[in-house]
């Protein structure tokens, strides 16, 4: 078990001091060695997860399997707790797991698997010990990626609190994604805007940062082209979440939140005018007109590459 948990990706909350409950719980899930019974508990039917201390009814195998698959996806069914400790070398971190340990059925933890076991997913573009890089499954522009920090504390903290130290560690990944976006975009489109050089494209046509009120539990950095030319862009909320102060640009982080989530949503999503990123025209609440306008502006600057 690692002593210093400042760089930890994997954490556990149960500490085996050699005197506590360490016996196998036969629960029929093949996760028995990852569970324990607390002899001091009055309810003898309860078992607890060694990773996060969540409690289950001993016979509730369905909930246990769901919990392990969603909250601890790096743990294989055929992997004993001892094997896990040897292979992953998790750090002991008391109270590390917050409400997410009870969010097995929520879409909000869908990014968790890419943080904890990116090697298992073909859609992962790149990963190392610092970050995982994937496409956004619901892209709001032509090229839209996510950078997922893998440090446990960073991944499970509010994204607006990303420190300068963390930003420095992610600098290589940010530059990697910029170059990747350029390559992918120019594969699809020829740039007809004469003053949009590669240098200017990288500096001005790619935006990256975080949402002030994220919809996903794990910290993720959006990196995307500023065309907003996408079928997935369907309403004002989608647009303003990237084109208002709701979106915190990378160079503004870390940032302290002065407003509640509701105040932020009301001010920057519901009541904020929609401004065209190309020409700064104000479309107020007229999303349909903005959508047509964005397509027109896009076609002025980019032409689909014809495959030879």
TrEMBL record:
Residues 119-228 form the HIT domain. It is found in: Nucleus. Residues 243-300 form the Aprataxin C2HE/C2H2/C2HC zinc finger domain. Pfam families: HIT, zf-C2HE. One of its GO terms (cellular component) is nucleus. It comes from Kluyveromyces marxianus (strain DMKU3-1042 / BCC 29191 / NBRC 104275) (Yeast). Its main location: nucleus. This is Aprataxin-like protein.
